[in-house]
């Protein structure tokens, strides 16, 4: 069929797959995408639609037509990692062990414990944390891709993303969020929740609550982050038995949600938070005293130090 083409989006940019027909197979599509992106076929994670949903391409001899893939469609291509390797080993409580298979869905039948996966403090910790719960890999290169997603979604919906919501004119916001030193928060979480079609539950250690972005959309899956007032990290489930870790859960899984609620309470009671609005702070890395949110954020940008404590 002449003119058959499929657009694909990756964190590196946009590409076009040509030379296929509706009667070509899923295997043919995977080979083309793998060749264009340098992602191994076994690691391809392909999404389509809006909000994007994973495509079931396990039957490799199925035709593109039978899978509802048409010329002009846009597919989102990510690299799915099965082995989680900690780039920043700390201790057994902070890092997922090396060589672990990463579970994308609620396959785990054994109980486990929610644990923190520390990500780099580089002004993009929110995006890196979301990348980890999606792929099982700490990859700071995800951030520009997610910033571009947010800018495009906001620019295409100026009615819902007005100056009153964004705190600045829509075009100005879109320019701002693309900068690598712009911090993400509630607006960005809401956009990414909608884009990926899943609920993002954020454990707020300052207020001992869980903020659930996308809760009203009744998504089938949920991921967890933790926020201490300055920095975001990802949460994953460490099993009591077996070697697999889990970052993505069914929204019907009340057990893991209860664990997250208990974690929020424990973190607040042990003061694992930074109340930037009401306390004098001290950088626990260099011991510098700081006052208020503006000074703390500026200090973090200048030095990369992200560990703050309250000064009585």
TrEMBL record:
Residues covered by the OTU domain: 114-225
GO cellular component: cytosol; nucleus
Catalytic activity: Thiol-dependent hydrolysis of ester, thioester, amide, peptide and isopeptide bonds formed by the C-terminal Gly of ubiquitin (a 76-residue protein attached to proteins as an intracellular targeting signal)
One example GO MF annotation: zinc ion binding
Annotated compartments: Cytoplasm
Annotated keywords: Cytoplasm, Hydrolase, Metal-binding, Protease, Thiol protease, Ubl conjugation pathway, Zinc, Zinc-finger
Function, as annotated: Hydrolase that can remove conjugated ubiquitin from proteins and may therefore play an important regulatory role at the level of protein turnover by preventing degradation.
Protein name: Ubiquitin thioesterase OTU
Source organism of this protein record: Diploptera punctata
């Amino acid at each position: 069929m002449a003119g058959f083409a499929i657009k694909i989006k990756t964190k590196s940019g946009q590409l076009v797959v040509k030379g296929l027909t509706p009667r070509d197979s899923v295997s043919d599509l995977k080979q083309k995408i793998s060749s264009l992106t340098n992602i191994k076929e076994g690691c391809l994670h392909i999404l389509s639609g809006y909000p994007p949903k994973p495509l079931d391409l396990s039957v490799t001899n199925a035709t593109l037509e039978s899978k509802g893939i048409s010329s002009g469609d846009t597919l989102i291509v990510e690299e799915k990692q099965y082995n989680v390797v900690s780039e920043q080993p700390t201790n057994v409580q902070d890092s997922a062990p090396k060589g672990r298979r990463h579970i994308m869905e609620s396959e785990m039948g054994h109980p486990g414990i929610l644990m923190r996966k520390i990500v780099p403090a580089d002004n993009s910790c929110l995006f890196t944390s979301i990348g980890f719960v999606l792929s099982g890999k700490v990859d700071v290169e995800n951030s520009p891709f997610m910033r571009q997603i947010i800018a495009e979604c906001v620019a295409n919906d100026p009615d819902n993303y007005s100056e009153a919501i964004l705190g600045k004119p829509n075009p100005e916001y879109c320019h701002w969020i693309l900068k690598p030193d712009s911090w993400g928060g509630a607006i960005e979480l809401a956009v990414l929740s909608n884009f990926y079609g899943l609920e993002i539950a954020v454990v707020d250690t300052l207020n001992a609550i869980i903020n659930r972005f996308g809760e009203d959309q009744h998504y089938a899956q949920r991921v967890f982050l933790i926020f201490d007032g300055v920095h975001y990290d990802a949460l994953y489930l460490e099993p009591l038995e077996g070697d697999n870790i889990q970052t993505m859960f069914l929204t019907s899984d009340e057990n893991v949600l209860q664990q997250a609620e208990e974690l929020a309470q424990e973190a607040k009671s042990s003061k694992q938070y930074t109340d930037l609005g009401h306390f004098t702070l001290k950088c626990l890395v260099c011991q510098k005293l700081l006052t208020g949110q503006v000074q703390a954020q500026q200090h973090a940008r200048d030095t990369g130090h992200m560990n703050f404590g309250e000064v009585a």
